[in-house]
Design brief:
This protein is of the alpha+beta class and 245 residues long. The chain contains two helices and 13 strands, in the order H-E-E-E-E-E-E-E-E-E-E-E-E-E-H. The chain has a seven-stranded mixed beta sheet with strand order 2-1-4-5-13-7-11, with no helix packed on it. Strands 3, 6, 8, 9, 10 and 12 form a six-stranded antiparallel beta sheet that branches. Strand 8 and strand 9 form a beta hairpin. Helix 1 crosses helix 2.
Length: 245
C-alpha cells in the first residue's frame, strides 16, 4: 500500500513538473510587431517586395488567392489618416490595444483571410491555454450598425469562437480579453483566426493583438494530490527514521 501511494505521488509530481516545464509562451510574434516589409500595410500571402504589402513574421495570411483584406495596423495611429485603414474615432472611445503598437485587422465581410501559424513542440494530450485581446471598429467613410462579429479560432481539428461584438454606427467595441483551452492531438497544430459576422454595416474591422499560448495551469485537484503525496512521503520517511532497530 505504501509503495502504491508513493508511486502515485511521484507520478503527480512528474506531471506537474512537466506542466511548468512547458509553461512559457510557444508562439512566434504574438504581438505582431515583427514584419518582413514594414508595418501599417495590407498583408500578402507570401514575402513580397511590393511597397504596399507586407507579411507578419511566423504567420500566414491567406484567403486562398492572396492575403485577403487583412492588415497590420499601428493601433496608436489607426484612428488617423496616416493609417493604412482609417478607423472612425468621433468620440466613440477608441483606444490603442492594451499591448500598444501593431494589431492584426480583418474585415469580416469583405474577402477576409485566415491568419495562421503552425505551433510545434506540443505534448500530445496536454491542455494549452490561448489568450488574446480583440476589438471591433468601423472604417472611416462608412456607416451602418454591426452585429455579432467574432473571431473563429482553430487549433488542430478543434474550433472555438469569441463572444460576438455589436457595434453602433461609428462606434468602437472597446478591447476584450479572450481565454480558451485546447488539447493537443499532435506534436504540432495549426492555430488560426478568421473574422466572421453577419453585420450589415460596413466595414466591420475585427482587431487582434497579444496572442499567447501556454501550458494550462494545473487544476486545484492536482495541487491537492501533489501536496498530499509529499506529505505522505514525509510521514513515511519520519516513520522509517524512528522505527526500532
Amino acid at each position: 500500500m505504501r509503495i502504491k501511494s508513493v508511486l502515485l505521488c511521484l507520478s503527480a509530481a512528474a506531471a506537474l513538473g512537466s506542466t511548468f516545464a512547458n509553461a512559457t509562451p510557444i508562439l512566434v510574434n504574438g504581438n505582431f510587431e515583427s514584419t518582413t516589409n514594414g508595418g501599417n500595410k495590407q498583408l500578402s500571402s507570401h514575402v513580397t517586395n511590393r511597397a504596399d504589402r507586407t507579411t507578419l513574421t511566423g504567420w500566414t495570411s491567406s484567403n486562398g488567392n492572396d492575403g485577403g483584406y487583412n492588415f497590420v495596423l499601428d493601433s496608436t495611429i489607426a484612428n488617423t489618416w496616416d493609417s493604412a485603414i482609417w478607423l472612425r474615432d468621433n468620440g466613440n472611445g477608441y483606444t490603442a490595444s492594451p499591448g500598444g503598437g501593431n494589431v492584426f485587422a480583418s474585415d469580416a465581410v469583405y474577402w477576409p483571410g485566415v491568419l495562421s501559424q503552425t505551433v510545434t513542440g506540443l505534448t500530445i494530450g496536454k491542455a494549452y491555454t490561448l489568450t488574446f485581446d480583440y476589438a471591433m471598429a468601423q472604417q472611416s467613410g462608412f456607416s451602418g450598425v454591426n452585429k455579432q462579429n467574432y473571431w473563429e479560432v482553430g487549433f488542430g481539428n478543434a474550433t472555438q469562437q469569441t463572444q460576438g461584438l455589436d457595434l453602433a454606427d461609428g462606434g468602437f467595441s472597446g478591447w476584450k480579453t479572450a481565454s480558451m483551452t485546447f488539447t493537443a492531438t499532435g506534436v504540432s497544430e495549426v492555430l488560426s483566426f478568421l473574422a466572421k459576422g453577419i453585420a450589415p454595416g460596413a466595414p466591420p474591422f475585427m482587431l487582434l493583438d497579444d496572442v499567447a499560448l501556454e501550458a494550462a495551469v494545473p487544476e486545484p485537484a492536482t495541487w491537492t494530490m501533489l501536496l498530499g503525496g509529499l506529505g505522505l512521503l514525509a510521514f513515511l520517511a519520519r516513520r522509517r527514521m524512528v522505527a526500532p532497530v
